[in-house]
Amino acid sequence: MRKPYLRFLSLSVFVSLILSCDGRPSKHKPSVPSPVLPPVIGLLQNCGDEFLDGQTRSVTLYRSEFAPVGKKCEQTKFETEETCTAGQRIAVEPGTDACQETSIKGLKIVSPVTSLEVGESLALVLEGTDNRDGKVTLDNKTAKWTTSNDFVTVSTSGVVSGTLTAKNVTITAKFEKLTATVKLNLVGKSCGDTLDGEKVTAKRYKSERVAFGATCATVDTMATCENGVLAFVPASFESCEAAKLTRLEAMPTTLYLNRGETAPVRLTLIDDIGSKIAVAAASATWEVPAGITQNAGRLTATQDPREGLEVKVSAEGMTTTILVQNPEFKPELIGFKENNLVLKVGDERVLEARTNQPIDASRLNWGTSDATAVSVDGGKIKALKAGSVATITARLDDKFIQAKVTVEDGITWDIKPVIYDENQTNVKVLTQDKAFLNPAYVMTVTGPTKPVLTGATEGCTFEARESRGKWEINAALDETRDVIPNKCEVDVTAETPAGQKLTEKLSIVVDYNKTTVVESLPKETAEGVEVATVKLRMSSSYAVESAVMKGLTEDALPGCEWNLLPVDTGYRVLVKRTDSSTCAGQLILKMKDANDGLILTTNELIVASDSRPFQDMCANPDNDGVKATLAAIRQVVSQTLTCEKLAAKFRADSLASLLRAERNVKYVEGSGFSLALDNRKLTDLTILARLVGLNELSLGNNRSLSNIEPLRNLKQLKILDVKFFTAIKDFAPIYSHAGLYDLRLPKDVSITCNADIKNPTIIKVCKQ
């Protein structure tokens, strides 16, 4: 086998062979025999000296050759990988090696129209010219838009709308340091070919319907195009039609004749708009029975019509009858059984006329004062138009009776909760702090009715009260109940005389949790010494998770052993004391709300003492001295609080004081429980004996005050001022008040030192 020529060929010949793929001679290339070559796959091409074909590397590129408006090139950088393939750099994410930033040098607002109809919207386009003279559509939100007319608005997105017509309204857009404007006219909607504000004359009808037999005639009417609607003056109509006949009426419907007597009959056609068209007797068709003759609308009895003879008469396709009767059978109208009816639209009733003898209602001539409000047909009426009144008339010969028919307005209402604070989104919750809402809802009712409240939740009261054209719905809890409902509901109904009815259930959430402590003098019981009762009133969604008594003990308040004994609606508080000293305990109640799973913690102070409880003395002062001290307390605290609430406040203040002491919080003057009872003519401080957390007390200028024994157990006193004008000589009750760091004593006080004195001020002034 011959060896391939490839090894003997020069490089130039080899390249020529590759470039002439078919191997045939070319006039531009040397002609050589075609060797037998192996298949040519391709030549290696590199993407640079260091980036070889087939290699992959990380690279930093820009998203595009030109950065978007408002962005720096640096903001468009990203990291990716690229591969060298046949001399081409191919990146995983496309990008460019270089980037040029774009700036805007010109600004223009583009509007497709120059006039905008009132009520319509127009989206403007903000177009910029960049630093390469290219056109760029900018994001409207990057510009600040303003308008020269208060009745024309432009949104942050460049959308224009208006509520009134206006000319040459300037819309301005500011982008960076550039400004562009465009002028628009706000016009009303056109009326076809007639522009807003222009006048036009048109053929119109004076009325939509004319009486039967009348002709609908047009008249030239001037109109002005007003915001898309042609306003005609005077009012006119596009179409017209003749009314349709509803009945033929004979008057009278019954003739009472003796033999040989004659009486005239008038014929009238009634159409559906209430028009009356007289009918000539000669143009009507008469069917007259034997015993009666007719001539030009006059009927004559040629025989005694004792049994009653019926004459039929027709005109324009309508037929009616006339009864000829002997006078002895002549009935008389007395009145309607109902002469004042209230109906709603669509209601139908049959009016019954009362007569001295039975008579068919069809023998009466019926009429209505307003056929568009109430229609009548043979005594059957139908209510057609809300808020209207019509008079229905029934005639018999020369007498008539009438009934008034009122068609009610439709009934609607709007019930909204009263918003008392900005965070409230629904009706306010009833709580122990505010167990009433006056009002909870405000209700607007349109129509002849007032709201009725029924089915209120037991334990809740509701009341509807009219105020300035609206109805206020008040709600309140019955706080005397042992169990409080977790919501108060009531059905509100508005029903009209005609039976239109609206009903809605109102619901108010109740989050009620009240703990009432009633302290008492120590009382021996089989279970122990009872010093207080705890009454729990809670929404039915609450349940007690735990209840414990914690003794508040320190040198100032000797410890007691406390115990809680559950009863139906709370607890009895029992105590075991080593002596008759006053001691205090903290009641800690944890209650869980099933509605939201939250735990509510209540803390109450309970004092065991041989002195009467504050609430008891407040409600029943036993002498004038106690009354004077209570009056002084009310002057400085509150004149409106009940004894129960005043006692609860002082227990809360005392508990806070005792807990601060337990935590060794340094006392700051003016920050705690204080009473200033100067200049009150006090003589008896007994009512203060249980205020064990009192921090500051001022008793100056009470010249008859001599006994401070009730202060003996007030070991949290930090400041006591008795410096001026009192009759106090014995300070033994406060000897052991070691925490009383500011004691302002009279200058002439004389105290003999002894081991019981713990107060630093008294130690300084006492005499050996």
List the helices and strands and how they pair.
Blueprint (H helix, E strand, L loop, with lengths): L10 H9 L36 E7 L14 E9 L2 E4 L12 E7 L4 E3 L3 E3 L1 E6 L4 E3 L6 E4 L4 E3 L4 E4 L3 E10 L2 E10 L11 E7 L3 E2 L7 E9 L2 E5 L7 E2 L2 E7 L2 E3 L5 E3 L1 E6 L4 E4 L5 E3 L4 E4 L2 E4 L7 E7 L2 E8 L7 E4 L3 E4 L4 E3 L2 E3 L9 E4 L5 E4 L2 E4 L4 E9 L2 E9 L4 E6 L12 E2 L4 E11 L4 E4 L5 E8 L2 E8 L5 E2 L2 E9 L5 E11 L1 E13 L2 E12 L2 E11 L8 E7 L2 E7 L6 E11 L5 E10 L5 H6 L4 H13 L6 H20 L11 E3 L19 E3 L20 E3 L20 E3 L15 H6 L3
Parallel strand pairs: 5-13, 15-18, 20-28, 30-37, 39-46, 44-48, 54-55, 55-56, 56-57
Antiparallel strand pairs: 1-2, 2-3, 4-7, 6-11, 7-8, 9-12, 10-11, 12-13, 14-16, 16-17, 19-22, 21-26, 22-23, 24-27, 25-26, 27-28, 29-32, 31-35, 33-36, 34-35, 36-37, 38-40, 40-43, 41-45, 42-43, 45-46, 47-48, 48-51, 49-52, 50-51, 52-53
